Amino acid sequence: MAFDRERIERAVREILLAIGEDPDREGLRDTPKRVAKMYEEVLSGYGDSPENHMVLFTERYDEMIIVRDIPIYSMCEHHMLPFFGKAHVAYIPGNDKVTGLSKLARIVDVYAKRLQLQERMTQQIADAIMEKLGAKGVMVVVEAQHLCMIMRGVKKPGSFTVTSAVKGVMRHEPTRMEALFLIKGR
């Protein structure tokens, strides 16, 4: 997906005019360019795919692998305001294949750097790891604060939204409990 920076700049200029600002005043003169560049960065997941980060290694390992506390920064598709927090990814390899640990964080970023719903993003991360890695099981837990709930509307600072996606053998109660303990039972 190609970003149309100039179109975004024109739209931001129109927003500034619509709220009664002077887009030509010193402090705002370069704001449309800065906003366009910011959107290109924070929404870069549209131009990326989890396949770009799935480096597989042959390794006979059939126990749980967890990367927890992966920082996430995303944009709510309803209000185009940020939500942020952390993701925890657990998987049990299948087919004697593991991926690099940093690749799990990169897969999280692919989906976080799009206009999102936290629920969808959680599911997309789990599906990608399950399918592309051929995992026996996957659990993804995302904890986030949403600025659309903090600074507008209901105005509830300190509230967290927690979502999970559980696939394959991770659905079995003992395995699920082990994953949750390792993620949260510090």
Automatic annotation (TrEMBL):
Catalysed reactions, semicolon-separated: GTP + H2O = 7,8-dihydroneopterin 3'-triphosphate + formate + H(+)
One term of GO molecular function: GTP cyclohydrolase I activity
EC number(s) from the headed UniProt entry: 3.5.4.16
Domain GTP cyclohydrolase I: 8-179
CC annotations in GO: cytoplasm
GO biological process: one-carbon metabolic process; tetrahydrobiopterin biosynthetic process; tetrahydrofolate biosynthetic process
InterPro entries in alphabetical order: GTP-CH-I_C/QueF, GTP-CH-I_N, GTP_CycHdrlase_I, GTP_CycHdrlase_I_CS, GTP_CycHdrlase_I_dom
Transmembrane parts of this sequence: none
Binding site for Zn(2+): C76, H79, C148
Keywords: GTP-binding, Hydrolase, Metal-binding, Nucleotide-binding, One-carbon metabolism, Zinc
Protein name, entry field: GTP cyclohydrolase 1
Species annotation: Thermovibrio ammonificans (strain DSM 15698 / JCM 12110 / HB-1)
Family: Belongs to the GTP cyclohydrolase I family.
